[in-house]
Design goal:
Blueprint (H helix, E strand, L loop, with lengths): L1 H13 L3 H6 L3 E2 L11 H8 L3 E2 L6 H8 L5 H22 L6 H21 L3 H32 L1 H4 L17 H21 L7 H6 L10 H6 L15
Helix pairs in contact: 1-6, 4-5, 5-6, 6-7, 7-9
């Protein structure tokens, strides 16, 4: 598996034009200074290439980059976190369990583009399976991402104040909005993990910790989420359980 994943990442990286590879090459951790998502620090983190240790991109910052760009920046976020985790795992373990930024994102993009072009050209027998394959690849990668985030967070559970893994990986397979719920939780807890690894102080993320409590909450089941309004929004914190 390690050989396949490293080979996939290397092959997809080789297919990327040199200026793009150079722009998004991993670099050592930067000192972004202080400030929130709308500060100079926020802009620097939004536009930074992947770093080692990884960049603690908060939920607020991720939303700020994703919504105005129609989720285009989220694609860059996905690339960056996968590449950071890939390089970090390779450094620590000498092997990987993820395909990295290039190996995760580009097979999906190529399958979607080629499949879509084939479908438009009237070759649905080719286009349909390619699009489905691309969808399966990115979804499997998301489940695997949540698994790895769980492992990393548990490795620092005392520092993060955790008693158990924060995510249910299989929630990635659920329909919206539940897949978004676990996705936002992944963003939050990965950001906290990288903050701890860097030795920085955690800066409060009001979106995750105040306005939408389910993001920063301890792990909960679907039943608990449905029956406990205190987890939903800032204005439902005082509502009783159903």
């Amino acid at each position: 598996l390690d050989t396949f994943l490293q080979g996939t990442n290397a092959a997809m990286k080789a297919l990327t034009i040199a200026p793009v590879r150079e722009r998004f090459e991993m670099r050592r951790a930067s000192d972004f200074g202080e400030g929130g998502p709308f500060s100079q620090k926020g802009w620097a983190m939004l536009t930074s290439p992947p770093e080692s240790p990884g960049i603690p991109r908060s939920v607020s910052l991720t939303i700020l980059g994703s919504v105005p760009t129609g989720l285009i920046w989220y694609g860059y976020y996905k690339f960056s976190v996968e590449e950071e985790l890939f390089q970090d795992e390779l450094r620590r373990e000498g092997k990987v369990t993820g395909a990295g930024g290039y190996g995760t994102l580009l097979p999906f993009v190529f399958a979607f583009l080629i499949g879509g072009a084939a479908t438009v050209a009237g070759h649905e027998e080719l286009g349909g399976p390619l699009i489905q394959l691309g969808g399966f690849w990115i979804l499997a990668g998301q489940v695997n991402l949540y698994r790895r985030v769980n492992e990393l967070c548990l490795s620092r559970k005392e520092a993060l104040g955790l008693t158990e893994a924060p995510l249910y990986s299989w929630w990635a397979l659920l329909p919206p909005p539940l897949d978004v719920v676990v996705g936002l939780r992944q963003v939050h807890f990965l950001a906290r993990y990288w903050t701890s690894v860097r030795g920085d102080a955690w800066e409060e993320d009001k979106v995750a910790e105040e306005y939408f409590p389910f993001i920063a909450s301890e792990r909960f089941t679907l039943r608990e989420f449905a029956r406990e309004p205190r987890r939903w929004f800032w204005f439902s914190r005082e509502w009783g359980d159903w």
